[in-house]
Design goal:
Layout lengths: L26 H30 L3 H23 L13 E3 L4 H10 L2 H20 L1 H4 L5 H14 L1 H8 L11 H20 L3 H4 L1 H15 L30 H29 L6 H20 L5 E3 L1 H10 L4 H14 L3 H8 L3 H26 L3 H19 L9 H7 L3 H15 L4 H17 L9 H8 L1
Antiparallel strand pairs: 1-2
């Protein structure tokens, strides 16, 4: 593994290499371009940990430490994805971060059991997903584009309630839905939206961060930020991540639930790496790259659990950044990954995010969650609205969203089934779409038309002994 050498030893160090997968880029260009990737994913990387830590009832010190560790985990996982170790990693320009996909199920497990049970489920589920990546060539055809599209759409829907709760100030908060929360959350959302709509280039990519900054400043005027934490000298210290801050507990219901979501994360990674190969490198994704990306997804998530963190996955916003800018150089993205690693050692960063009011987080995440939903709809559209695709999307989404809105439907099932599916729209959509994709015939449109017009075609071909003229056929249709 050689991080600082180009694929072509004769290729000179040049800024033009940013559009090549390999090749050195001058540091004065590579660092700001790498930082751009960090800014595009920074909040999305931290927010899931904030949400799950809150659901688990962790204190401010534990939450701050885990927020800091998320930066280290994301940086290391990105490095592995960029520069594979053995068969782990794709070698594609992909940035990794803490996954929003796991927020609903991990929040539920944290509240139902405890955070140690969350860590145990992540450890087992990560190992299972990573191992599946080693055998990608055997199951690749099962995850069709329409299955991936339905799953991403379901993720968007599943996160809406989470975003709304934080917009109101956090579920169970004494001031939930207060005028202050409405005002600050709305300002945050509007600012992020304005930068997204009217911003250009780099400014457009940091629209979420700009919304966070403005929302945070407004919340200061409302007295919603506890500034006393900054008077603690430890807030400015440099610290090392803690290994095994939580001793894993293993609960079979939690493990099965989280493993199913790891399979969902697998489909997301499948879609992200395919998009990078097609839009950035203008070629198809290879089976080796797919398997490597899944291995990195799973095994790096298992390693993340040793630091008390949530699973990691490929970040779609960074995939979009690659597609928009055409910057696919691995060395450039490596600079961004190293920035994440370095930032993880400075306490002030995690301290700041721990003071972030819930309504500000809600204003930012609403826009991100909405974008996930739209991405899923766009993916379904790209698959084509054939009768087969429409049936898979319609049935999987209506069953997934409808049944989880009425969880009492699962009362007749064993507790383990209820824990997995009763409040997990993504798991239901994944299972239903996979089953439908396997059982529905590929030529469903042809079969439908054959049955409808069988008699007419037989008559036209003379099989019934009668040949109908064009005029007679028109009269018959009328």
């Amino acid at each position: 593994m050689s991080w600082f050498k180009s694929g072509d030893p004769d290729l000179p160090v040049s800024v033009e290499n940013v559009t090549r997968l390999d090749g050195r880029v001058p540091l004065q260009n590579a660092i700001p371009l790498g930082l751009q990737h960090v800014l595009a994913m920074f909040l999305a990387n931290v927010a899931p940990m904030l949400i799950v830590a809150s659901a688990a009832g962790l204190d401010s010190a534990e939450t701050a430490r885990l927020i800091q560790t998320t930066l280290l985990v994301a940086g290391v996982a990105s490095i592995v994805q960029l520069y594979p170790v053995w068969r782990v990693g794709s070698g594609l320009p992909v940035i990794m971060g803490i996954s929003f996909t796991f927020v609903p199920i991990l929040s539920f497990i944290a509240q139902e059991y405890d955070y140690a049970t969350v860590i145990g489920a992540i450890l087992v589920g990560g190992i299972i997903e990573g191992t599946l990546g080693l055998f990608a060539r055997y199951w690749k055809k099962l995850i069709s584009p329409i299955v991936s599209s339905c799953v991403v759409t379901a993720i968007g829907f599943s996160l809406f309630e989470v975003g709304a709760n934080y917009f109101g100030g956090g579920q169970g908060a004494p001031d939930f839905g207060s005028a202050q929360n409405w005002i600050v959350g709305s300002i945050t959302l509007i600012v992020a939206m304005l930068f997204q709509v009217f911003g250009k280039g780099f400014i457009k990519q940091i629209s979420i961060l700009m919304g966070l900054v403005v929302g945070y400043i407004v919340s200061l005027f409302f007295g919603m930020v506890d500034l006393s934490v900054f008077s603690d000298p430890t807030s400015y210290a440099i610290s090392l991540p803690q290994i095994m801050p939580f001793i894993p507990k293993f609960n079979i219901s939690a493990i099965i639930s989280v493993t199913l979501i790891f399979l969902v994360s697998l489909t997301e990674t499948f879609g992200d790496t395919t998009a990078v190969a097609e839009s950035g490198l203008h070629r198809d994704l290879t089976t080796r790259e797919l398997g490597g990306s899944i291995c990195a997804d799973g095994y790096c998530s298992a390693i993340s659990s040793f630091f008390g963190c949530m699973p990691v996955t490929s970040f779609s916003q960074n995939v979009g950044l690659v597609a928009m800018t055409g910057i696919v150089n691995r060395f450039t993205l490596l600079m961004g990954a190293l920035i994440l690693v370095l930032a993880s050692f400075f306490n002030i960063i995690s301290t700041f995010f721990n003071t972030l009011p819930n309504c500000v987080l809600g204003g930012c995440t609403l826009l991100m969650f909405g974008q996930i939903l739209i991405t899923g709809i766009e993916m379904i559209s790209k698959c084509g609205f054939t009768k087969r695709n429409s049936l898979i999307a319609a049935l999987s989404l209506i069953i997934g969203m409808g049944f989880t809105l009425t969880p009492d439907l699962f009362a007749i099932f064993p507790e383990i089934i209820q824990n997995i599916f009763a409040q997990n729209v993504v798991a239901i959509v994944f299972v239903i779409s996979i089953v439908l994709n396997l059982v529905l015939p590929e030529n469903i449109e042809d079969t439908f038309n054959d049955d409808l017009f069988k008699e007419e075609r037989e008559q036209e071909e003379g099989l019934g002994g009668v040949i109908i003229s064009d005029e007679e056929k028109e009269l018959k249709q009328d």
